[in-house]
Amino acid sequence: DQQVKQNSPSLSVQEGRISILNCDYTNSMFDYFLWYKKYPAEGPTFLISISSIKDKNEDGRFTVFLNKSAKHLSLHIVPSQPGDSAVYFCAASGDNAGNMLTFGGGTRLMVKP
Amino acid sequence: DTEVTQTPKHLVMGMTNKKSLKCEQHMGHRAMYWYKQKAKKPPELMFVYSYEKLSINESVPSRFSPECPNSSLLNLHLHALQPEDSALYLCASSHDRWVEGGYTFGSGTRLTVV
Lengths: 113, 114
Description:
By secondary structure, chain A is mainly β.
């Protein structure tokens, strides 16, 4: 039973346009959400996070939106750059999970020059 | 120092071998983790150490044996592995309570069991 789902395994976007990566979760106890970016042969690197008390968090070109009622979050990258091409993982955690993160299956983003 | 260092980067071992994966961090993090990642799959939690004590074991087979000698080091001892254990093994660390940023991951050890 996947508690965190990324339904799009891949996404292709033109350079300069917006990339929107989506993530759905089922566990209503999750209260902290993160996005990680992963290049081949490297470990995931933290990108941006959001607490359930917020509905938006912005950091430069990256914005994460949280819709608690829909149990949905999204990552917007504007403008997209070729260096953004990577696999993006959504992850979630809750007070009752200690420090454990539950990861989604990942979305491979390809930004074309 | 804001890194988690894992060695070796690549490891090929036979099913009868004994080997160890090593992980080191000097960020003062008191929680450390082992994750396993198969191709095109998300990282799966194996073990969690909190203040050098094993706090979570996600029903991992005994052929994987974790060890936390001190607050900066985390080992994963491997013995009698199977080919299906071939994967990327990721170490991560974090503060004991959640802070912005969650985990810091190492680059991983690519393990191949032959």
